[in-house]
Design goal:
The protein has one domain: Glutaredoxin, CATH 3.40.30. It has a 5-stranded mixed beta sheet. It is 43% helix and 22% strand. The longest helix is centred in the first third of the chain and has 16 residues. It is an alpha/beta fold and 125 residues long. The model has no long low-confidence stretch (mean pLDDT 93). InterPro entries: Thioredoxin, Thioredoxin-like_sf, Thioredoxin_CS, Thioredoxin_domain. It holds the Pfam family Thioredoxin. GO terms for molecular function: protein-disulfide reductase activity.
């Protein structure tokens, strides 16, 4: 599956949709971003059930600012509307595959329970 260009117009609807959503925050001038792009595109082909989106931080500075993206590439993984991972750095193919597998295997009911417990305890804002 091809990657989806994410903008302020379609970002929220995309991340709120059920299932796995991966987001690559990148810019055309960024060497590590260009090196990560083929790895990301291959993963998109291998995982047609997931949405693979790309946010061009130069074209969408408000999205980059909203998520405090200060280093690119930054990969974000969202499942069922819950951010599971958000870290800067270009990943090698195997590391990206491992992250996807772990995200797919998570018990989302348990993840939501833990978030609720942390919120009640004042640990999450």
């Amino acid at each position: 599956m091809a990657t989806l260009t994410l903008t302020a117009d379609n970002f929220q609807a995309t991340v709120d949709s059920p299932g796995l959503v991966l987001i690559d925050f990148w810019a055309g001038w960024c060497g590590p971003c260009r090196a990560f792009a083929p790895v990301y595109d291959k993963a998109a082909e291998r995982h047609p059930d997931a949405v693979f989106g790309k946010v061009d931080t130069e074209a969408q500075p408000e999205l980059a600012a909203a998520f405090q993206i200060s280093s690119i590439p930054t990969l974000m993984i969202v499942r069922d509307g819950v951010v599971l991972y958000a870290q800067p750095g270009a990943l090698p193919e195997q590391a990206l595959e491992e992250l996807i597998t772990k995200a797919e295997e998570l018990d989302m009911d348990e993840v939501r329970r833990r978030i609720a417990q942390q919120t009640e305890a004042g640990e999450v804002s």
